[in-house]
Write a structure and sequence with these properties.
mainly alpha; 2-enoyl-CoA Hydratase, Chain A, domain 1; three-stranded parallel beta sheet; three-stranded mixed beta sheet; 9 helices
């Protein structure tokens, strides 16, 4: 896409929402927004393309590893401190702040903006981004296909009693 994409986030961006947020060019959070990379917690072995391949390039490998291993929820100020978010604004100002960004971008020559976006993307590709995505597909595809006893039990509980019950069951295995 040639035009910049702005993610305006309120509530929680997790799963596919977190991936879309990370893939956006600019990210604005309300002060009530949060994000989390929960795939490990729900039994998908961290198979989150956004978290595994975009997040390290945004926040650094060490922090990204911590976030995807533990699946902790990150509040808006923390996301800003990590560089995951461009701005944090009060909830009541989220829409206006997003439109202000969009209007500022609209004042820039479309050709110059498209060229700048292309150049930044090509820079990321030259740094190995495209190869990382391709290599990651080799890892992620088998993870989605894998069936383990624990994974199947987790899914069974999740389907019967909900995600919360499945997470409590999983956490109970580490008690004591």
């Amino acid at each position: 896409m040639k035009k910049p994409i702005i993610a305006a986030v309120n509530g929680i961006a997790a799963g596919a929402g977190a991936m879309l947020m990370l893939a956006s060019d600019l990210r604005i959070f309300s002060d009530k927004a949060r994000t989390a990379f929960l795939f490990v917690k729900v039994g998908l072995s961290g198979a989150d393309m956004g978290a595994l391949y975009l997040l390290p390039r945004i926040v650094g490998l060490g922090k990204a590893t911590e976030l995807v291993y533990f699946g902790d929820t990150i509040d808006a100020p923390t996301a800003r401190e990590m560089g995951m978010v461009n701005r944090v604004v009060p909830l009541a100002e989220l829409s206006a702040a997003t439109m202000k960004y969009a209007r500022r971008l609209a004042l820039i020559s479309p050709e110059a903006l498209a060229g700048t976006k292309l150049a930044t993307r090509r820079g990321a590709e030259a740094a190995g981004f495209r190869n990382a995505i391709q290599a990651g597909l080799d890892v992620v595809a088998p993870l989605y296909a894998a069936r383990t006893e624990i994974g199947m039990k987790f899914q069974e509980i999740k389907e019967k009693d909900g995600l919360g019950a499945a997470l409590r069951w999983r956490a109970g295995q580490f008690a004591g």
